[in-house]
Amino acid sequence: MTLLGDGWGPPAVAAIAAVLVALAGGLATRTDAWYRRLRVPAWKPPDWAFGPVWTIIFLLTTIAAVMVWNADPDPAARGVLLAAYAVNGLLNIAWSVLFFRFRRPDWALAEVAALWLSIAVLVLVTGRVSTTAGLLNLPYLAWVSVAACLNLRIVRLNAPFGAPA
Question: Smallest Cα–Cα separation from 13: which of 85, 96, 72?
Fold first, then answer.
């Protein structure tokens, strides 16, 4: 089945959803004075790298979603696919809100476990239909694994959080 097997609808909807999640996460992300004061490990990727990495991740996960949508027309399977991506999108946005807007890397650390699990679910849900689609979600899982380690180091280097600034 081709990427455009069901016409332009599925790719357009998936692309719009990915852009909305990316936009919401981007709007929640503030690299302000509070963020710049955080102690971070030496291995933290440079801030400029996050945009290109996330662009690639969103592109790959969008392609995976469309591949699976086109490959499995079963309404129940499509419902599971949509639910998995919806939960993941909400958790993706929530991490940025907790870390940057609420300035609670400790809460974000707890939330990143749920985000990681939701990505593992994406790998499984897409991979059961298409091995390629499942593999396309692995860079997302790897990046969030690195982000979780970074989040943990930031918590350890900067705790406690929630005190008046």
Answer: 85
